[in-house]
Write a structure and sequence with these properties.
2 copies of one chain form a homodimer. With 537 residues, chain A is an alpha/beta fold. Chain A has 17 helices and 16 strands. In chain A, the strands form 3 sheets. In chain A, strands 9-8-7-16-15-14-13-12 form an 8-stranded parallel β-sheet. Chain A is elongated, with a radius of gyration of 25 Å. In chain A, 50% of the residues are buried. Chains A and B meet through helix 1, helix 5 and strand 11 of A and helix 1, helix 5 and strand 11 of B.
Chain lengths: 537, 537
């Protein structure tokens, strides 16, 4: 009982205190004054660099700002304070957006910094400055989150923000192979990512179970490897995802995991390793990609040349995790090859051989790559630009981060952010507490940690439950990756993440589950605001 | 790799074998022949007892049957067999529905048995017979599940079903107090319940955290106890839920949990117990309902008289769980009352006193009741018609079932079916294995177990995630409660529950999560069938 009253009090205080001016993830520097400005329907974004991306973002954010109004301070309800009339000192009629270099491409090294000033005095002025378009998009998101929608209209406090990401790689991984994800849910997830300032969509697009990616070079891959002819991503679908992401400042890094996790490539003849039974005859089953045939590497080169054409990002994800050696061990041709090359019984040397050839192809065709930690754990020599994704929890991911950065390689952390693992209660606090630079190493090593990635593997996830299961749990990761390393207080984050869920996810039409026990949102999911205006109001 | 091939093989066999003629929950007796009948758009339901409920059910099931052909056997896709043309021996143009007594009310003792015959020879005839409307509704659901939708049209096998529920109480409990559930999601859940032959919606409508129920007798309850004036269920809302449920053969049993779990009743003066601090003054906080005032029982009688008017079911749920004694202990008036009544320090006697008065009111106004096990654990004498809901896991629920039935009381089990508890992987198998009659007792005791209830408490559940989190996990409970006690094979249930998820939940527009690892549905959630007819088909 006592605890309930206290929580109601906190909720009540939070109604007054947390709602306006809360930005998630927390900006690096932010200050506000008590002066309030009103925003009316006349409000416009303005710029002298009206690119397509910026103009579309203006349209999007105009819609998002005026989604309300939210009846935040209505009388009568138990946990709401009496409604205070909001006193504005003036009207804010525009936000001027200045970008120094609109031509800068979206890459790993894009500049996402921005500064945002909303002045009330001597007269209302709002100004957003960014070096590149990508920073302006982040600034527009922050601006939209500052706006307080009430029955008296839309308001914004006098605010000053100077902001930039702590890490340059802030990723989300979806798996569309264990279960197919509809295009619609992938786009919704990109929306949610942009509301959380994530900047990489790592698309684990194929795996053992299915090959939904339609390749123009090898169309048989999806024809025989997809669950059905409808469970595919056509070239148009993929192009739409790439453009939709880019419009939101999100890179798309596609993963084709080899030589393991590749059963669904079986339609290419002589590409997978034939497995043999104990009496020395092929048993009709197939293992990892066959590493001993020259044709294997011709196929891979052709395939990745197509990928380079179709995905604009400099990076591709090459996978390389969990190669099972038993099929290779059963195959007499592989055994002969091992002997000829002096590999003995060390199949990790064969894996090394495969990976060496694969990364040589990448260098040849000009693609950089991310790989799961297994590849460097198996001592494959990789390009200095390589990004190593640390995903294992045992042995310690901290030791792995130290090891990888000691090799002078860039790394991203996922070990503590496998959000497919679910349990009862508040697990986001664990995600929030995990820090990618929390390991023993020099400053130089720490600097090689370029970020992290929230992953949601697809064994128990499809279009029915992706959004609500992933959000706002992934928001905990977004703040860890964007905000200052000092922003670590879980108690302070709790009402903020609840507010973020209600106002930036649910209110904007995205399913995001409750993660902190009992609560409510002013506008619940699937209740259109206008429908809320019942007779009692 | 090997295991993947085997699963693909099972999937492939299942495409042929599991799809047609699979009914969930499994009917008591069912046989099919190889003879196939075609169902065209001319198909009609017919009856000589055209009640509103039946006519509406006909309309509903006609829509559900013709939801759009599923391209089940398309060529080319990896895990699909080559398409076989389906050969029908004739057209089925109608299902004739006969009901012996259409006037029978929906109660705990309603008859839900039915028999269904689809004959191919000498000519196509289909006949559904039920004693009461409620059995006809179950038969229509089974009929709809028998129909195989393909690109060649709609087909049904020659089939004979004789079916009836193992238990007469098959409940689902939703909690709309910890989080508000929108009307829309409550109705969706009723749809899902009817597809699973559940017959009781136990509505845990209020609790400490909020009071969304709009009472006409005490309107201040929701005015001051709801999260906001929009987080309420108006009389129209409640009426709609009751009618929507009844149309599907589902009783609505509303719960008003007292004397604990009642903080949200605080707007009624002198109804909750004032708590005192150690120096003997009221501390401004309130505990359970005040059991020592006569006014308490007047209020309760008035309130439950309204409930009796507004909810047609014979039963109401009185709660009675988890009464915290600390506030009662602090209050000097309560202490005096305890002394006067010779209760000593035994606050469970005071709870007994309260419950005794409450059930006496129920007898007076003519309501039967369900109570959580705590009430009988505290030795309150209850009406012989009482249903005791066993929910605790410790001490053993089997011992509790034995104890309660030894007291000659009816009981329902929920201990093993708290579906709000989630974890990674296949937890439905655990729900499936739990049996309400699996305890030491006489046959007479076993007969007093009238069913069970799948509960989903609302701390981490609202309209964003209720449907996908609850379904199809709750389907495991539905089969346990409807089908023969012999239907226990998890391996056999696995492809059937997957099929049920795809065809009876997702295809019908309900979010139901994948629960068995990687898989696909022919029609995934949010992909409208017609949109699937892409260029490649």
């Amino acid at each position: 009982m006592a605890s309930i009253q206290i929580i109601i009090l906190i909720t009540l205080l939070c109604q007054r205190w947390c709602d306006a001016g809360s930005v998630w993830p927390m900006p690096q520097i932010m200050s506000t004054s008590e002066s309030m400005l009103k925003i009316t329907q006349e409000f416009q974004f303005e710029t002298d660099v009206p690119t397509d991306i910026l103009n579309q973002a203006f349209q999007r954010y105009r819609k998002l700002i005026f989604l309300g109004p939210l009846p935040r301070h209505e009388p009568g309800a138990a946990v709401n304070p009496n409604r205070d009339a909001i006193k504005a000192v003036g009207n804010l009629t525009k936000l001027f957006v200045q970008i120094d270099d609109v031509s800068a491409n979206l890459t790993l090294n894009s500049d996402e910094s921005y500064s945002l000033s909303i002045h009330a005095h001597p007269q209302p002025v709002a100004f957003l400055h960014a070096k590149q378009t990508w920073g302006a998009l982040r600034g527009l998101e922050s601006f939209s989150q500052l706006i307080d929608a009430t029955y008296d209209g839309f308001f914004i406090q006098e605010t000053k923000i100077v902001d930039y990401p702590r890490f340059k790689y802030r990723g989300v991984m979806l798996d569309s192979a264990r279960h197919y994800l509809t295009l619609d849910v992938i786009l919704q997830n990109l929306d949610a990512m942009s509301y959380n300032k994530f900047n990489v969509f790592h698309w684990h697009i194929v795996d053992d179970q299915s090959f939904p990616f339609v390749s123009l070079t090898y169309p048989q891959l999806s024809q025989h490897g997809s669950y059905t002819p409808r469970h595919v991503y056509t070239p148009d679908d993929v192009q739409m995802v790439i453009e939709y992401a880019r419009d939101r400042g999100i890179r798309v890094i596609v993963e084709f995991d080899t030589p393991g996790h590749s059963s669904s490539w079986r339609s290419i003849p002589n590409f997978l390793t034939p497995c043999y039974s104990k009496n020395g005859v092929p048993n009709g089953q197939f293992g990892p990609i066959n590493p001993i045939l020259n044709s294997t590497y011709t196929i891979l080169e052709d395939f990745f040349r197509e990928i380079k054409k179709r995905f604009p990002d400099q990076y591709v994800h090459l996978g390389g995790d969990e190669v099972n050696f038993s099929c290779w061990q059963s195959n007499p041709d592989i055994q002969n090859f091992m002997t000829q090359h002096g590999f003995g019984d060390h199949y990790e040397l064969l894996e090394q051989y495969y990976e060496h050839n694969l990364v040589t192809i990448m260098e040849k065709i000009g693609l950089r790559y991310i790989i799961w930690q297994d590849v460097v754990d198996n001592n494959v020599k990789v390009d200095p630009n390589t990004v190593v994704q640390v995903w294992k929890t045992s042995p310690s991911y901290k030791a792995e981060l130290a090891k990888v950065t000691k090799m002078n390689l860039q790394t991203i952390l996922s070990s503590c952010w496998y959000l497919n693992y679910i349990g009862y209660g508040r697990d986001w606090e664990r995600f929030y507490r995990c820090d990618p630079q929390d390991f023993k190493g020099t400053q130089q090593q720490k600097n090689l940690v370029i970020g992290g990635e929230a992953c949601i593997w697809g064994e128990y996830v499809d279009s029915t439950n992706l959004m609500e299961r992933f959000w706002p749990r992934a928001s905990a990761v977004s703040e860890r990756l964007w905000s200052s390393a000092k922003v670590t207080n879980v108690d302070a984050a709790l009402p903020r993440i609840d507010h973020h869920r209600c106002y930036q996810l649910i209110r904007r039409g995205l399913r995001a589950q409750p993660i902190n026990g009992y609560s409510f949102c002013q506008a619940e999911y699937n209740v259109v605001m206008n429908h809320l205006d019942r007779d009692e109001l």
